[in-house]
Amino acid sequence: MALIDKLIKNVSPAWALRRERARYMLKAYEAAKPSRLHKKRTDTGSGDSIVGSAGASLRMQARHLDENHDLARGVLSVLVNQVVGNGIRVEPQVRDKKGKLLRNVNQQLTALHRDWMLSPDVTGQVHWNAAQRIAARTWFRDGETFTQLLRGDIKTLEHNTRVPFSIELIEPDYVPIDYNDEKKRIIQGVQKNAWGRPLNYYFYKSHPGDRLFSRVTQDTKRVPAENVLHLKLIDRIGQTRGVTVFASVLNRLDDIKDYEESERVAARVAAAMTAYIKKGSEYIPTTAQTSERSLAMAPGMIFDDLAPGEEIGTIQSNRPSGALEPFRQGQLKAVAAGTTTGYSSIAKDYNGSYSAQRQELVEQSVHYAALRDHFVERFCRPTWREFVKVAIAAGLVQIPKETDLTTIDDADFRGPSLPWIDPLKELKANEGLVQAGFKSRSQVIREMSGSPADVTEQIVQERADELDKGLTFTTNTNTAKPPDTSQPVQDGQKFADQNGNRYIYRHATGWHRLDDAA
């Protein structure tokens, strides 16, 4: 080998240099070299080729776990609850050309959307919040979900709300993952252009899992991409179809279930065992004891018919095993890591300290926020924009001239708020941030999944009711000193002092005290 290297060096120094560089690179990346202790694992396929061969199988296995494995079902529930909660709330943010919120337009859109939320889907049986939870669960379990947007007059379809706009939730089974056509650029049921942008989706006319699914229903219908929302979990650039969140932990979940089942069987067998009779070397059978004996077990029983040399022995089963719980905890932590969920949430184990619980909550909130942002941008926001577009086209929203049309479909989307572990500390922290000017009241209210406009309106109404009925609370701002009469005061304006005395302002005569009867 040394002779060859010397010969190459003399003939072509550049070639020798490249060989030496390659040799050092191989030494640096030991993981690239297979050995007795290391297996070199390679995956040269594209994202689509991998999903095309395994996607359908992974989806079926994930559904089986959802239906039959309590831990897997719990993981999905945690993801849905943390990402979507009881539904992503929307707050319209239409503004005028000066940047000020147009309250009237936003109220119109809010009222129409509340009506639409009652029955947004084509079946008329699903509330918008429930539709979001179903879509999110399908997204996590199957790796993807499809939604068709249906606008205006459509034959055989009757919209269920004032806004002629409906959605159709579609399982990924409807899009054949094995439908490929190189000439038409169809990949796994999705037709793309030369840049990889979806142009059309091909759907079966009925679910391929239905018993009535036949050759006729195997025909596909083409739906333009602008009418389809495709929410998917992907790990590879350019990947067409999604993969279940359980993809990397399927084997581990199966192992946990099998191990727990073995321990349960062993525990049942151990519970059925009682005792046995040991016969020593001094055992002398009697006539009555030569036949098969059966002793009825009871609390506090006494054995009084043992023969010489006999004694009672008990069976030590050591079940359930003491190693079960540590093993299960370790495996669940790995499942939590693989599915980006919190261990405490899926294991229902909240034995940690306040600091540990807070750290886990903060760390997991980042994962949930990232998933929530993707869900909003790929499902909620596109649906909202289509809703606004159709509502305006139907003449259901009055748009003033001063409206900034670039903000006509702007909205703020609010998911489930971060729960408070110590409410008093959280309250004081938010109060300090607002007073210091580092955070606004609106931000605090939105973080608590509230609507600033609704909260402000409720506060104004409550204060008016309290003043009208003479109610006094520690938070009642009307218990301060009477308003300065040098400032404009309306006729009929009411006031209550700190002692509960009520006053009313009369034009030109000032403040007058009212008794309880008044």
Write up what this structure looks like.
This protein is an alpha+beta fold and 518 residues long. The chain has 13 helices and 14 strands. The strands form 5 sheets. Strands 4-5-6-7 form a 4-stranded antiparallel β-sheet, with no helix packed on it. Strands 3-2-8 form a 3-stranded antiparallel β-sheet. Helix 3 (47-68) packs across helix 4 (70-83) and helix 4 (70-83) crosses helix 6. The radius of gyration is 35 Å and the shape is extended.
% residues in beta strands: 5-15%
Radius of gyration: 35 Å
Helix vs. strand class: alpha+beta
Q: Main sheet?
A: 4 strands, antiparallel
Cα-to-Cα separation, first versus last residue? 112 Å
Give the helix level as a range of percent: 40-55%
> In total, how many domains does the architecture comprise?
4
Strand order of the largest sheet: 4-5-6-7
Question: Ranges with pLDDT <50 over ≥5 residues?
Answer: none
Structural key phrases:
about 525 residues, alpha+beta, 4 domains, 4-stranded antiparallel sheet, 13 helices, 14 strands, about 40% helix
